[in-house]
TrEMBL record:
InterPro entries: Alkaline_phosphatase_core_sf, Phosphodiest/P_Trfase
Organism: Luteolibacter algae
Name of the protein in question: Alkaline phosphatase family protein
Amino acid sequence: MRLAVLNIVGLSKSLIGENCPGIRSFAEKHGVQSYTPAFPALTTTGQSSIITGSKPEQHGIVANGWYDRENAEVRFWKQSNHIVQGEKIWDTLRGQLRETMPEFTCAKLFWWYNMYSSADYTITPRPLYPADGSKFFDIHTQPMMMRDELKANLGPFPFPAFWGPAAGIASSEWIASSAKWVEEKHQPTLSLTYLPHLDYCLQKDGPDSPLVADQVRAIDHVVTDLIDYYESRGIRVMLLSEYGISAVHQPIHLNRLFRQKGWLSIKNELGRETLDCGGCKAFAIADHQIAHIYINDKAITREVRDLLEKTVGIDEIRLQNHPRSGDFIAIAKPDAWFTYYYWIDDQVAPDFARTIDIHRKPGYDPCELFVDPEIKFPKAKIAKFLVKKKLGIRGLLDVIPLDATLVKGSHGRDIVPDEEKPVFIGSSEKVEHAEDIHSAILKHFSP
């Protein structure tokens, strides 16, 4: 029997109730398990642990981004599947089923590290960046010819609904439609589909917000429709999530503390401050509730650790044995999270700080989900930018706030209450850790 795995980001037992009758019914029928997430409990780390059946120390995805020591550059949200070390589940299955199911194929839809994968059919968001500095929303597919066919049949991928202040259900709806499209065209043996919707409201408004109920109902409708669609074609369905979301109230600005100690190297670029990581004695790469601490001057290692241990909001310091990892990993308390901020005066913050720029920032920035409430007429400002863009005039869509207290939800910790743990639904195989899901999927295809 073929298998479809739906990754419903942010789903936990606490959300499986009256607002998601379809998912609740599926869970009552097939059983629901909560499991300890990968550490760190982050998108790319969790997905890579599931895909390879190994821990970050083996597959190398230590966070959504890290400091590349050799190139002295921060690399966030890269897309090549070659970055993930170890054998992928579709390659394992292709080898195991060579004799009994030589026609095996895998579709990997919007899971991360999806470019140049050995999976048969892939779709991933990928903007176009012409030489004039402009940016156009688009997707990347394998096979490449699928890209034009998809857009012709489904319309353009609604990129603003995938990330940013306009993030919403439209992106998950399009992804679900693309999953049906791939099924109808190619009938993959294993389909992996990523549905990001809950991530937005849970980080923006917090898991306790009354606004979450409508968003849960919205993703439940998408998921239930997909379950019905796959089951009508005789395809088994499994549901999973990578992490749950914790309510947070306390941002921690580690790089500002490091700056006060004289450990940062700051470069003035046209009146704006940028972080010169290669010249820093020590700095933090923040990613939700964890921060990798990289130390270039080993003489201050003990001093750095002492500061971390005394910093309000930090719960624990860990080590992670992989070259991409920092010298320390700081873990926030349950109600805290880490910013990447390093400037003291907002007037000299880098120009990208107030924009949606997931690659240039030396850390993850959930404030990209908001429009700055200090802007009096934000719609007019955005409209003006779009008109200038249409006319070929370059400019910044600088509408993102620098107020980290706006963020109400985060993740990254692996020690969380049961009701905040990620879930796995649709298999009788016991799952205690993220890597166990890999085994459960393999078991489905065992004779």
